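Need the bound structure for fe (ii) ion, inputs here:
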Amino acid sequence: MDLEGLNSWLAERNLKGHWDHQPWSQVVRAHLWKWDDIYEGLNWSGKLITTGEAGRRTIQLRNPSLSAGMTNTIHFSVQLVNPGEIAAAHRHTAAAIRFILKGNPKAYTVVEGERLPMAEGDLLTTPNWTWHDHFNGGDEPIMWLDGLDVRLVGTFGAMIQENFKKEHKSFWSCASDLDQERVCRAALPLSLDGDLRQSHGTERKRG
Ligand SMILES: [Fe+2]
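Answer from helper R.:
Posting the output first, comments after.
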């Protein structure tokens, strides 16, 4: 067996000698995703699948230089929520930013019981392991760019997601009362409620 033969023999067994320099498969190459394609695909998805069925109705940006995902650290998708829909609450160890592309005055992301309006051009953050859902109370679909450090977190095997359970008190109930100003205690899951009230007081005024 010569060295080339050994390289092949090792490769067949998913092994590799340090001397056998191969292109690093995780190199991320630049790629351009066209908005027209994203927008058309997203609109089709809005007709073909509900947010409830999809969990999150997102079109993921996939980099052809990688086997999966957009980069080795962050991942971006574009999300659509139709009028009247709620993208159900969950939390995960990946943190997220949301850059709003199409919003309306009755569209909200709720983070740990805090209602954050979604207007075009706004940037929202969802820190890691915070409960969050998205609600569109307007008449037009809303869209935003979702960015998460999910690839980085996943590299460390630390990606965990938990869906909000129905037996928990709904914490977007305050957010659903869109038309009136009122005092609204952060309606967080019961398991978190006590801790939150201790650290932030019993009531917080919400708009
Ligand atoms: Fe999320």
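Comments: The chain has one domain: 3-165. The chain is about 25% helix and 25% strand.
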